[in-house]
Amino acid sequence: YVGPDGLSHSGFYCPRLTDPPGHRYCCQPSLDALKSCCSQLALEALTGVNLSSLASPGLLRNPLALPFVGLYGLLILLLMAIDLCHFCRTRRCHLRRLLPWPCPTGAHRQVTAEQLRARGNALFQAGDHGAALAVYTEALSLSDAAAERAVLHRNRAACYLKLEDYAKAEADATKAIEADGRDVKALFRRSQALQQLGRLDQAVTDLQRCVSLEPRNKAFQEALRALGSSMHEKVGRGAMSCTDSKVEQMFQILLDLDEKDADKKQKAAQNLIVLAREEAGAEKIFQSDGVRLLMQLLDTAKADLMLAALRTLVGLCSGHRSRTTAILSELGAPRLAAVLGVEHEQVSLAACNLLHVMFDSLKEGLQKDFRGKEDALVLDSSKDLKLLIKHLLELLVLEGASAHGRDNALNLLIKVVPRKSPKETNNSLSLWVIDQGLKKILEVGSTVCGSLGSLPVTENTRMSTSVLLSKLYEDLKSGVSWGWFEGHELPGKLRAIQTVSCLLQGPSDAGNRVLELEGIMDSVLSLCASVTEAHQLVAVEALIHAADKAKRASFITANGVNLLKEIYKHSERDSIRIRALVGLCKLGSAGGTDFSMKQFAEGSTMKLAKQCRKWLCNEAIDAGTRRWAVEGLAYLTFDADVKEEFVEDKAAMQAMFQLSEDRSVLYAVASTLVNCTNSYDHEEPDPQMLELAKYAKQHIPEQHPKDKPEFVKRRVRKLLTAGVVSALACMVKSENPALTNSCRELISRVFLALVEEAEDRGGVVAQGGGKALIPLSLEGTEVGQTKAAQALAKITITSNPEMAFPGERIYEVVRPLVSLLHLQRTGLENFEGLMALTNLAGISERLRQKILKERAVPMIEGYMFEEHELIRLAATECMCNMAMSKEVQEMFLAEGSDRLKLMVLYSGEEDEKLRRAASGTLAMLTSLHPPICKRIPQVTVHWLEILQALLLSPSAELQHRGAVVVMNMMAAAREVAEQLIASEMLEILSVLAKDKEKPRVAQAAQESLAHAVAYGLIKPNPGHA
To answer: Where would I find the TPR repeats (predicted)?
Structure first.
């Protein structure tokens, strides 16, 4: 109450404990005095009221309540004492300096913390991250060991990551790292948290630390690569804003008419090339009237400015159909064809590249995200395609066009005219080219290099023409008038014979049909005896190309061998002599690899080969003449004696490898190497058929004694020592029209022979063989692609794929390997493809996704039912590694699928290798996808029997796999654990848990028993540590 002094005073009941019992009334004598307890008489005197006449109010304060208050206080003190004792019991080690009793050994406390950690692990695997977090927190309250607390903090960080509480995850991971700076799990989890918090630079630092501690961990490498890419994209978005200013700056320099500094303008043009390679820069150039400016640069006739303009236009046209159409409309096809035919070789090549890019853009359309808008703008590009091709065909016979411009036009036609195939059923463009340009193409093919009044051509022109005719042949052979070859005058005969040579090098069937025309073969033989060297040169080449087939070779052997010998002996020109020699080489090898068929006398073939090697090594002779020596060896190396001498001649091999840079000799070099490595197709004859042939007195081909495997292996080693891999890699890298599909197939065959022995594969990869095999496996003939893919598989099986195919190249290997799984492939190819994919699938999730994208999983599953045990095993091992992918795990839970049942049953097979692969798959699946654990008891009634057999197996690997599966199933669900414990599994696990000779098995068994204890299914054994 408030007293007269204005201050608040504590209230009270009367009587107070210090007052007499009669002072039951509250009195205030005056306004200036405080209240106090008083008697009845004092109150009556003060108030003037007779209280005797009023009813008694009774006692307001009973002293009997004091004992009950005391009892309540004692109860509170007792509870506080009990709580203090419990605290001292659990934390006595912290109070050991104050308390008299000693600190206990801690064994019981550590076991308790470990049990809680095991229970938390089980809850985390089951997906109950909140409960796991609570258990880890409780374990932290019971543990004071630094190492144990670091593990618990690390585990709590994993829980926080799952619960998306990234700040707490980062804090817990930091505590674990403070205890152990080399804890890669904690570092990795902190990097994940930092990445989600937006602190990418710190996340990269942690990931780099992880990679430095465990350089072979693929998960760390993939995470660092992905994080680096995201940071690069973030930086790139900021850099795009400055593109507009750069484009404007370059245009200001080029549009400044007062600028006399040519170097400054050239630098500006070069900068435009770089900007045009980016989409934003290309669009800015296009929208800023850049095409008109670039057209002015083309009209300057200055090579450097023309090159800059052409290369900038390449950037504008790449992958953009509408821009390409607009540029073609503004520049005009005649202008582009004229630039292609200029004398300056680099300008012509740049124009060829631009036209190729324009063809690709017009055919394939826009390959960007806004395809729909562009397709609406450009409906049909076939007219533009035909317009460009029309001007290319006209350029072929244009007298003012340069020789290399004509070659570039032929190369472009080779690239853009589609070859008839089951995939390319629409041959309308090829028919249009035949209708509009066949005569023009044949006219170029009939041109004799260096002759007066003829079109300017190079030594490679006829080969390019042959390749183009070969592509058109499937459509050409149905409707050709052979009147072109009817000419009785000498120029007409020369033209016809030169065209025959061109056809024989390309569509040989068409050339053979021409040779069957009346008078053609007689004209060839008569011109071989001509006194005019140019006529003789044309005729001898035609004769060489005509000697390919055995039937015609026998005709020429009877009618032209003596003539070729005379030319070889008496001609004064080496170019004619070597051609005659090649003709003799062809005729001498008409028997092929048949040792029993000899066209010439014994020793003649060796003499021819010796002369070919001599000319091949003679650098004083021009390369165009020396290449004919390679042509001769391509035929003579059918003879094993010639092969043996050739691989011993290092100078000849090196000279051939150097000449392989010439496009016209690629096929001959590849053929020679195929013969030396015996990589051509040859089937082992059926013994019964051999007996029948002998009985019928039929000719039986014989193998040369030096073509046996030990000789072939020795020749391959010598070729590898001489550097054959580098030569083949250079042949593949060159963008050469002479690198036809047939040539690619030959090179693929050689590569397959080179990697046959496992010890040679490392050297092949080191010299660039792995890189060269990838394009060979993706394009060419079906046989060639298969051979190259098989060579890739052999390398992938025995080498580290990441070393053999570094960077992004490893992802290009997947498609060729998957192609080996097709049903039309042989069993060996299937097996090697599966083995190679197994290695790739174990490297990273990105590779597994690539395999999934190529639709390989259904084929892998199909081979798991294969009768051949090795193929079945390889497929199961491949599936084991693929099971690390989430999509594959979901497949095992699909309704109506027997995938999981098959794996469980395979785990009980007699074949130990198959059991190991299948049980490994089960261990992987149950670890990564706990719902599978609940499904296993449902797929087959024998599941328990199979798991027990795995645990009782004498093989430690099988025991470990079985123990991991059981451990995962125990952790997944209580009902599954009850089924396991109710069987003999408890006794088996109890025995395995004590097996000190197999620590991994014992640890898995102990964790399984710990889960059973946590579920309350069994009681812990106090005597078991």
So the answer is: 184-217
